[in-house]
Amino acid sequence: MATTPLTGVLLINLGTPDSPEVPDVRKYLREFLMDGRVIDMPAPQRFMLVNGVIAPFRAPKSSKVYKELWDERGSPLLYYSQDQQKLLQEKLGKDYHVALGMRYQNPSIESALEELRKKDVDKIIVISLYPQYASASTGTSTQKVMDIVSKWEVIPSISFINRFADDPGFIKTIAAIGRSYMEKEKFDHYVFSYHGIPERQILKASNGGYCQLSDKCCSTYNKKNRYCYRAQCYETTRLVAKELGLREDQYTVAFQSRLQARIKDPWIKPYTDEVIAEMPKKGIKRVLAFSPAFVADCLETTVEVGREFKEIFEEAGGEHWQLAESLNTHPIWIDTLKDMVLRS
Ligand SMILES: C=CC1=C(C)c2cc3[nH]c(cc4nc(cc5[nH]c(cc1n2)c(C)c5CCC(=O)O)C(CCC(=O)O)=C4C)c(C)c3C=C
Ligand SMILES: [Fe+2]
Ligand SMILES: [Fe+2]
After folding, report:
1. Residues within 6 Å of ligand 1 by CB
2. Is the preceding omega at residue 266 within 30 degrees of 0, hence cis?
3. pLDDT digits (tens, 9 = 90+) for 258-302
4. Which ipTM did the prediction report?
5. Where in the chain is the domain with CATH 3.40.50.1400?
6. What's the CATH code, domain 7-164+331-343?
């Protein structure tokens, strides 16, 4: 009797250095920033910038923060992604095979696809673990999968989940994590800080010039701006705020992690570090901070939001800054991943 072929699930996240030491961080930054969807400059200029400036000067600085991030299990982005893979596999059972691939460094997308090929899967469901679509994150992961699979003799049927900014399970998980803090202590404001991207990349992805980076464009989420990264961030925030019963004046959306100093490009605004430094003057003293551009804790959540922003806020007169951890292995999140697969 013929057995039902397996369905492959490929989880993709960004990737992290193999170790926090300078040579590994440099190797990671080189691979990451030489990607033309991340630094969208002509290749010769990108090469000069990455090899002449970023790799030599940024790698030692980044290595220091990676050392702060690393714990006994290694880099949280990697081990939480592995936990998500394992828990999703358990939930889906024997008709599925779940593989994990990182866009940069290890385990690579190539190795994950090879694992699925060896399992002779009939179909692959690719989930790029970035809630809000951006060319620099989801776009490049999708392209990488297509580049590899296009060379296979037998190309299986493939579907891509390329954004879930408004997925009810995703929203509920963030709200559940937030609520666990709100039940224990009082906050007078809520900050939703998202990874930034250069403004130019928003304009390039805009449908017929609809997105002009104004609040008018990003204050609603509709058919025209559904791939606008900034509009998706605002939509995630509105939905979480609604779930938590927050009024509009109780929360602020802002964007972090800009590499602007090096490439002299404006990034999407407002900038988190600037916004939070003004808050204590306005009487905001106790903040709960969310990082909903990520589904696993990483350098950007633990170090940037959890430690660096806390320092900025407290130096400006704030009293309490609390990071709400990422989705990691939250049971609602694992159920949400399972639902995404079953719906696909
Ligand atoms: C939300 C998804 C991400 C987008 C969009 C994104 C765009 C983007 N990032 C850089 C530059 C850097 N990002 C770095 C770290 C980092 N970025 C993401 C996700 C997105 N980036 C994650 C999950 C992480 C953390 C990785 C980890 O190991 O924990 C870094 C490295 C750290 C550092 O040196 O500061 C850089 C550099 C650009 C230029 C960009 C868009 C154009
Ligand atoms: Fe990044
Ligand atoms: Fe927009």
Report:
1. 14, 16, 29, 38-39, 58, 62, 75, 77, 130, 134, 136-137, 195, 197-198, 257, 259, 293-294, 298-300
2. no
3. 886 455 789 999 999 999 999 999 999 999 999 999 999 999 999
4. 0.96
5. 7-164+331-343, 168-323
6. 3.40.50.1400
Ligand 1 pocket mutation, candidates 24, 204, 258, 300, criterion most atoms within 8 A of CB:
300
Centroid of ligand 3 to alpha carbon of 10 (angstroms): 29
Model confidence pLDDT, tens digit, residues 95-112? 999 999 999 999 999 999
Q: Does domain 168-323 have CATH number 3.40.50.1400?
A: yes
Distance 44 CA to ligand 1 centre (A): 22
pLDDT in tens, 74-86: 999 999 999 999 9
